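ok so I'm stuck.
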Amino acid sequence: MGSTVTFHLAELESAAEARSLDARDYGPITPLLNDDSISEVMVNGAGQIYIERKGQLSLSDVTFASEADLIRVIREIAAFVGRRIDDDSPMVDCRLPDGSRVNAIIPPLAIDGASLTIRKFAREPFTVQDLISFGTLTAEAAGFLVAGGTGSGKTTTLNVLSSFIPDTERVVTIEDAAELQLRQPHKVRLESRPARIDGSGRISIRDLVVNALRMRPDRIVIGECRSGEALDMLQAMNTGHDGSLTTIHANSPRDTLSRLETLVLMSGVDLPQRAIREQIASAIHLIVQQSRLRDGSRRITNITEVVGREGDTITLQDVFLFEDSGMDGNGRLQGKLSPTGIRPNAMAKIYSKRVAISPALAALFPDRKAPDFTVGVRR
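replied:
not stuck anymore, here's the structure
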């Protein structure tokens, strides 16, 4: 009996060591994964590996020895999270031990050879001060609560926004591949599961959202809404889970609402358009629009408030807008996220709940009930 216990402990120690990124062999891309200046590694077959550094793509001089070597690495990465990739299941979404997002697809679906895409995340999660120093947003905007295109930095911004959640609240995160890096001590992380080879055993994001509602969460954070779980998320936001967060693929705040409406229809619940829009207008308060600009930089371009409804139309107002001021001598886009002069309705709730906000935001939108309040510009 004692030898059995010793064997299991040895297994656990070995597994813990294997979860360290530095302790694992990813073949020739290992130095790229350990380089903190590289944000993405894209393998297009054994002989072509691109990297993204500071928003710019470049071809690296690193290659795999063979296609078999590349597929070996892909299978090891998938095995880390209990996934498999083979002829019966030739594509996989998973993650590295440090949380970096991985997508892999192999022949026969990948015609020119196996493809591996790894989106890395900072070893230390970014803070709001980091986003301000990067120029992603400004100090005034750094008190608000994400939509954007592929690779625009939505997950990174979601990580930063989640840092404002108080440590006293219970947070449940739900993702396809766990990549959020919440620092709160009271959190439960859930991850969906694809179907087995026989088609059974699939646990979707929507299943996890329904389950999360029974876990007494103060807030629910969904890595990305991309299907019918949008309806469950809206219902959660409308039934006592204020301050929940999620991301969505969309090109503008208005497109965000249209896409959200489409995702709700994908739930299979036959709801009239008016009811869907009522749910959206009531649940969503602020939309943070993030874009990847032509110089490769990732910027927040809109912070837009959902005001309500006029007839069948959801009304929006921009609180902050990115103002493009041209390129500098190094080919970098210059500009600033500037206030539009419209005071968001959300400020009344922020002040009534005594939420701590930055001095810059307080100066821009002062408390109208404060004894020293005076009427002036943007008040």
